[in-house]
């Protein structure tokens, strides 16, 4: 083993994925290349604390949609780590578990610009920021620069862990896809065909 080799990097793409769409896949693929990530693990949330009050599709269905979507990219995989956990899912617990699974790797948590701005509201933010790097991919309608100013002021020691980068803009969201299905509008080309067919077969989002 070459002790001078830079540590390997694992990408983590967390999300509700209700359903998964091309915005998620583009952010993950561009981050993989830009930050030389060995692979990207998609981790669907089990019981997301920030989505209380809205009906979230069963973890089994969301996991299956992610599994289908990542099948044709050998750098992508899906993990049921959060789905298996009891109670609410907190990123801090996931990062600790991943460190145990990959003790030699650096973790890079990929978010869209909207989620990047919310990191301060996460549980045990100090630990979260010390356990992982964060990559904020641009997302239409969200400007993360104000957040960076706050970070410079309040947590300057974590700045080297925070990375913003531009991806081709895709104004796609799961919320919009769910309402389109409900209203009988097309969703083709917004998400992989395998996911669209799963939604059609199972009747998800129709009511
Ligand atoms: P919802 O509308 O239900 O919130 P969403 O489209 O935001 O769904 P999430 O599962 O909430 O999807 O997002 C998972 C991660 O992917 C978040 O970090 C989010 O910022 C990022 N993301 C989602 N869509 C895009 C997009 N179009 N471009 C860049 N990042 C995205
Ligand atoms: Mg979202």
Overview of the molecule:
With 207 residues, the chain is an alpha/beta fold. It has a single domain (8-202), classed as HUPs (Rossmann fold, 3-Layer(aba) Sandwich), CATH 3.40.50. Helix content is 40%, strand content 16%. It has helices spanning 22-34, 59-70, 81-84, 91-101, 113-117, 125-131, 145-154, 174-183, 193-202; strands at residues 8-15, 39-44, 76-78, 105-112, 133-137, 162-165. Strands 3-2-1-4-5-6 form a six-stranded parallel β-sheet, with helices on both faces. Helix 2 (59-70) runs antiparallel to helix 9 (193-202) and helix 4 packs parallel to helix 6. The mean pLDDT is 93. The chain binds adenosine-5'-triphosphate and magnesium ion. Adenosine-5'-triphosphate (ATP) is lined by residues 15-18, 23-24, 27, 111-112, 114-115, 137, 139, 170, 172-175. GO terms for molecular function: ATP binding; nicotinate-nucleotide adenylyltransferase activity. It is an enzyme of class 2 (transferase). Catalyzes the reversible adenylation of nicotinate mononucleotide (NaMN) to nicotinic acid adenine dinucleotide (NaAD).
CATH topology: Rossmann fold
CATH class: Alpha Beta
Number of helices: 9
Cα gyration radius (Å): 17 Å
Order of SSEs? EHEHEHHEHHEHEHH
Main sheet, how many strands, which sense, barrel? 6 strands, parallel
Please state the average pLDDT score.
93
* Major sheet strand order: 3-2-1-4-5-6
The distinct bound ligands, ions and cofactors come out as:
adenosine-5'-triphosphate, magnesium ion
Helix percentage: 25-40%
Secondary-structure-based class equals: alpha/beta
The portion of residues forming beta strands comes to: 15-25%
CATH architecture label: 3-Layer(aba) Sandwich
Distance between the termini: 56 Å
């Amino acid at each position: 083993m070459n002790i001078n080799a830079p540590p390997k990097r694992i990408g983590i793409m967390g999300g509700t994925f209700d359903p998964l769409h091309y915005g998620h896949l583009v952010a993950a693929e561009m981050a993989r290349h830009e930050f030389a990530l060995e692979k990207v693990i998609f981790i669907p949330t089990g019981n997301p604390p920030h989505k209380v009050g809205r009906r979230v599709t069963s973890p089994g269905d969301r996991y299956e949609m992610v599994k289908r979507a990542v099948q044709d990219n050998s750098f992508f995989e899906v993990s049921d780590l959060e789905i298996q956990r009891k109670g609410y899912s907190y990123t801090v617990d996931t990062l600790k578990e991943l460190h145990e699974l990959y003790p030699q790797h650096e973790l890079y948590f990929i978010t869209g610009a909207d989620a990047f701005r919310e990191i301060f509201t996460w549980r045990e933010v100090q630990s979260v920021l010390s356990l992982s790097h964060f990559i904020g991919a641009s997302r239409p309608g969200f400007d993360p620069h104000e957040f960076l100013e706050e970070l410079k002021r309040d947590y300057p020691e974590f700045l080297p862990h925070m990375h913003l980068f531009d991806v081709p803009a895709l104004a796609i969201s799961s919320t919009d896809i769910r309402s389109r299905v409900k209203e009988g509008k097309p969703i083709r080309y917004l998400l992989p065909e395998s996911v669209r067919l799963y939604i059609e077969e199972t009747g998800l989002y129709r009511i």
